[in-house]
Design goal:
By secondary structure, this protein is α/β, with parallel strands linked by helices. The chain has one domain: Spore Coat Polysaccharide Biosynthesis Protein SpsA, Chain A, CATH 3.90.550.10. Helix content is 26%, strand content 22%. The protein contains six helices and nine strands, in the order ββαββαβαββααβαβ. Helix 2 crosses helix 4. The chain starts with 5 loop residues before the first strand and ends with a strand. It holds the Pfam family NTP_transf_3. One of its GO terms (molecular function) is nucleotidyltransferase activity. This is NTP transferase domain-containing protein.
Length: 196
């Protein structure tokens, strides 16, 4: 993917309240789960961190962590992922952040990673935008600045607030690439409507 080295943080631990508590990460289309699909989309990442329950099925090259306390919001989850990433040796210069509930994210990821190839040194990150809607959980940021921005307590903070210090530039993403699964209706529409 454009030869850009990147890490990935995947948020996979929300309450899924509009799905009656069924974990989004484990919804399947019959051949793969949303989690497996998202991990595959970032298969070129140097380090992949999944933030979610300890029993999520991931391969040995994917690291699991959890925000403390659990369910303290996506910004807290993102901070937990960034903290785990900072503890590793030699993280890549850029880090992708994604929510686990977007089955068509691979085309968006290509656009995000390609945006970094010509990034000026003062550009600290990029946030995706699809059809006029900004997507705070679809972005790519310089790793060191992301870790720094998320180093304080992010409990119950919004992701937009957490990322504001990075002043992300906007990247236009392909239509439909960030369609998400957060109701049973959207689960059926994407085919990810089976429980693992």
């Amino acid at each position: 993917m454009s030869g850009v080295n990147f890490n990935a943080i995947i948020l996979a631990g929300g309450r899924s309240s509009r799905l009656g508590g069924t974990p989004k990460a484990l919804l399947s289309d019959g051949s793969k789960t949303l989690l497996a699909s998202t991990i595959k989309a970032v298969s070129d990442a140097r380090h992949t961190i999944v933030v979610g329950p300890a029993d999520l099925p991931v391969s040995e090259n994917v690291l699991l962590t959890r925000e403390d306390p659990p369910f303290s919001g996506p910004a807290a989850a993102l901070a937990a992922g960034a903290s785990r990433l900072a503890s590793l040796g030699s993280p890549a210069e850029w880090t992708v952040i994604l929510s686990v509930d977007m089955p068509y994210i691979s085309t968006a990821l290509t656009a995000l990673v390609e945006a970094t190839t010509d990034a000026a040194p003062d550009v600290l990150g990029f946030m995706g935008e699809t059809e006029g809607i900004r997507q705070p959980l679809v972005g790519i940021y310089r790793t060191s600045q992301l870790v720094q921005a998320l180093s304080s307590d992010m409990t119950d903070c919004s992701v937009r607030f957490a990322l504001r210090p990075l002043s992300p530039a906007i990247v236009q993403l392909p239509a439909g690439s960030t369609d998400d699964v957060d109701t049973w209706e959207s689960a059926r529409a994407t085919g990810f409507d089976r429980q693992l």
